[in-house]
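Hi V.,

Quick status before I head out on leave. The structure for the redesign project is tokenized and pasted below; the design run finished overnight.
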């Protein structure tokens, strides 16, 4: 019996599931991992399923690690930027606080200068009273007024620094100009004081021996020597020094007001000086205790200083005589008057008429015989008249 060949094996197409397993099997074949330890070899099998699970785990961990790393880097940069911003804000805060303190300092300085200006204005009024020209005020361009720090951007430190620098520079210029102005005014007042003291010395009076005048201002303080007037030391307050100089000037002016530092006639000619002369009547050598001043008859005769009338009437060789007591032992006599205009006990001011020029008494013609006596001793009246040119400033 014939044998039939065996039937050919049937090839079945793999199912999708089997195809997938076959691909995974080729990608992740079964692997044996050998481990040698202490001369012994051990191994374990890493199957396809296990390799797939491990790959899946790595596939999830790596993206997470990348994302986490990126997030960390970004967070670190953001944190650093925030810290820098906070540091900048802290710098701005410190600068603003410094600016506010500087502005407070500027305000205090301006307030002080404003107060000094009020005092200086009063001092200038008093200087004008003494016919002393005050110092010229600095020109506007020399003393720029600082502008306030307004509308400043608190987030712009450079703008704040620039505004503060401008204020500081302007304030420095103003303080320097203000100080120079005060020192110049002190110099002018000191020159006037020196004039008055020199006038006193020229007629034998001591400035330090003057009695303290009565002052309604009731101010005090030590007298500052004139040598400090031109000092530029920072430890000397020029405003206080100016006040001291004005106080000294007030005191001198009040003390000198009664003294006979004026001429008794507005216009005159000296016809007979003080001292030894030939008497015009008996032609003998004698002492002339005054000066003879010629002017038109009935010319007003003026008091040469503030005083009290102690004589008003006829007196021996003087004819019609007015005598004033000026204090400090000083008396003035106005003789040969045609008419007397004051009475005993009257208080008169410098420049007030006390009589009219005449020729009463022992005289050869109309003139004024004028005497200045100190402690009842005759002294040269022309010294007082000459000194009065510094004491009395004509307008």
């Amino acid at each position: 019996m014939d044998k039939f060949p065996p039937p050919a094996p049937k090839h079945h197409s793999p199912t999708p599931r089997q195809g997938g397993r076959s691909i995974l099997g080729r990608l992740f074949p079964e692997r044996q991992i050998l481990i040698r330890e202490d001369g012994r070899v051990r191994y374990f099998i890493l199957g396809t399923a296990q390799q797939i699970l491990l790959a899946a785990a790595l596939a999830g961990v790596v993206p997470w690690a990348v994302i986490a790393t990126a997030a960390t880097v970004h967070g670190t940069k953001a944190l650093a930027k925030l810290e820098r911003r906070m540091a900048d804000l802290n710098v701005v805060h410190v600068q603003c606080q410094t600016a506010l303190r500087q502005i407070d300092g500027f305000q205090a300085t301006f307030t002080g200068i404003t107060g000094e200006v009020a005092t200086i204005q009063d001092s200038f009024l008093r200087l004008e009273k003494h016919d002393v020209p005050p110092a010229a005020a600095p020109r506007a361009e020399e003393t720029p007024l600082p502008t306030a720090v307004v509308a400043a951007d608190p987030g712009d430190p450079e703008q704040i620094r620039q505004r503060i620098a401008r204020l500081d520079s302007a304030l420095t210029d103003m303080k320097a100009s203000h100080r120079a102005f005060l020192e110049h005014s002190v110099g002018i007042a000191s020159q006037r004081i020196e004039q008055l003291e020199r006038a006193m010395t020229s007629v034998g009076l001591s400035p330090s021996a003057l009695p303290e005048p009565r002052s309604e201002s009731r101010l005090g303080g030590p007298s500052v020597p004139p040598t400090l007037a031109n000092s530029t030391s920072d430890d000397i307050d020029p405003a206080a020094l100016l006040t001291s100089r004005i106080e000294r000037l007030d005191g001198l002016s009040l003390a000198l007001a009664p003294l006979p530092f004026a001429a008794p006639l507005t216009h005159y000619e000296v016809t007979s000086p003080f001292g030894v002369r030939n008497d015009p009547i008996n032609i003998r050598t004698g002492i002339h205790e005054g000066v003879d001043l010629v002017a038109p008859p009935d010319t007003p005769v003026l008091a040469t200083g503030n005083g009290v009338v102690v004589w008003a009437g006829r007196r021996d060789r003087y004819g019609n005589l007015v005598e004033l007591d000026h204090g400090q032992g000083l008396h003035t006599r106005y003789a040969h008057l045609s008419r007397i205009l004051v009475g005993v006990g009257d208080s008169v001011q410098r420049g007030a008429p006390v009589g009219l020029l005449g020729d009463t008494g022992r005289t050869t013609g109309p003139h004024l015989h004028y005497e200045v006596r100190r402690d009842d001793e005759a002294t040269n009246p022309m010294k007082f008249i000459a000194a009065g040119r510094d004491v009395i400033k004509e307008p």
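Above is the designed sequence. Residues 359 and 366 are 4 Å apart (CA to CA).

G. will cover questions while I'm gone.

Best,
W.
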